[in-house]
Amino acid sequence: MNKSYEIERKFLIKKIPDDLESFTHFDIEQGYLCIDPVIRVRKKDSDYILTYKSRGFMIREEYEHPLTKNGYEHLIQKADGNVISKTRYIIPGPSGLTVELDIFKKIFDGIVLAEIEFASPSEAENFNPPDWFGDDVTRNIYFHNSYMSRMGKDELKSFILRYSHDKR
């Protein structure tokens, strides 16, 4: 089991890069078995992962453990709430950092978020986002995928209308 600390910030996106398909990308499906603590199962292309995350916003303890396809398929059926589907693009960012651009699909279609992981809290705090980034939503619980997984129909509709990238 891999243990690490995740230090990341999340942003809404003002403009999606034009050459998006030129970047490495993965299809992700994930469900949450618990949100306090966060226990998630994820399928990333043909990789399957069980993840534990501690509480927090910008800095959280994280453990990852590989799953078999059968293990994932069994556990995803036990996920509470909304199963999240998205395509993640890996984009070179400023100062040698990597931008993980998530374009959500299915019930969250229209939501676009960028996450950037940092080596230290000070690096995260001093980060100046590029012009194509929008509002910093790192400390907004609504943008934690675990919270999104628990949104009911009315809250989900309001969320999509308010934050959809294409402003339906």
Q: Helical content, roughly?
A: 10-25%
Task: Enumerate the strands of the largest sheet in spatial order, edge to edge or round the barrel.
Answer: 1-5-4-3-2-6-7-8
CATH topology: Hypothetical Protein Pfu-838710-001
Question: Roughly how many Å is the radius of gyration?
Answer: 16 Å
Listing every helix as H and every strand as E from the N terminus to the C terminus, the arrangement reads EEEEEHEEEHEHH
> What is the molecular shape?
globular
Q: Report the CATH superfamily.
A: Hypothetical Protein Pfu-838710-001
Q: Classify the secondary structure makeup into a structural class.
A: alpha+beta
Mean pLDDT over the residues: 94
Q: What ranges have pLDDT less than 50 throughout 5 or more consecutive residues?
A: none
Which CATH-level-2 architecture? Answer: Beta Barrel
Beta-strand proportion: over 45%
Give the count of structural domains.
1
* Main sheet characteristics: 8 strands, antiparallel, barrel
Our measurement of the CA-to-CA distance between the termini, rounded to an integer number of angstroms, reads 42 Å
Instruction: Enumerate how many helices there are, as a single number.
Output: 4
How many beta-strand segments?
9
CATH class: Mainly Beta
